[in-house]
TrEMBL record:
Protein name, per record: HTH-type transcriptional regulator MntR
Family: Belongs to the DtxR/MntR family.
Primary location recorded for the protein, binned into one broad class: cytoplasm
Gene: mntR
Keywords in alphabetical order: Activator, Cytoplasm, DNA-binding, Manganese, Metal-binding, Repressor, Transcription, Transcription regulation
GO MF terms, alphabetically ordered: DNA binding; DNA-binding transcription factor activity; manganese ion binding; protein dimerization activity
Any one GO BP annotation for this protein: intracellular manganese ion homeostasis
InterPro entries referenced in this protein's UniProt entry, alphabetically: DtxR_MntR_Metal-Reg, Fe_dep_repressor, Fe_dep_repressor_sf, HTH_DTXR, HTH_tscrpt_reg_MntR, Iron_dep_repressor, WH-like_DNA-bd_sf, WH_DNA-bd_sf
The species this protein was found in: Aquibacillus salsiterrae
One GO cellular component term: cytoplasm
Annotated residues for binding of Mn(2+) 2: E11, H77, E99, E102
Pfam families recorded: Fe_dep_repr_C (PF02742), Fe_dep_repress (PF01325)
Role summary: Central regulator of manganese homeostasis.
Length: 137
């Protein structure tokens, strides 16, 4: 199992590769607001654990294992954003709150939150009802 910090890197590398086709150490450093030397260190660890292949001057690619986990981590982040939005959390808090909780929930909880989001989305009336009940609080 990747640590929370490893998860942040895999998630960000996955997003960069999806968006641009590649992920450079400098792009990862900028996205995660860390020093490039920390990125190099982590990327070497992720390589050793078989999440990616890193060659110093050729860049890096995710292994099938890294891709699979990256996809799940991005899904988890987006799901939690959707969840907080549905329950009425203010827009400006959503990203930071998701970054704070995403690593600390079991996949069991994530799946149940997924059910709940689906429950609301398949019937927009339910979201409206929730909003009404919040207004009376
Ligand atoms: Mn995230």
């Amino acid at each position: 199992m990747p640590t929370p910090s490893m998860e942040d890197y895999i998630e960000q590398i996955y997003i960069l590769i999806e968006a641009k086709g590649y992920a450079r150490v400098s792009d990862i450093a900028e996205a995660l607001q860390v020093h490039p030397s920390s990125v190099t260190k982590m990327v070497q660890k992720l390589d050793k654990d078989d999440y990616l292949n890193y060659e110093k001057y050729r860049g890096l690619i995710l292994t099938p294992k890294g891709k699979k986990i990256g996809k799940r981590l991005v899904y988890r982040h987006e799901l939690l954003e959707q969840f907080l939005e549905i329950i009425g959390v203010d827009k400006e808090n959503i990203y930071t709150d998701v970054e704070g909780i995403e690593h600390h929930l079991s996949w069991n909880s994530i799946d149940r939150i997924g059910d709940l989001v689906q429950y609301f989305e398949e019937e927009p009336k339910r979201i409206a009802e929730l909003k009404e009940s919040q207004q009376s609080n």
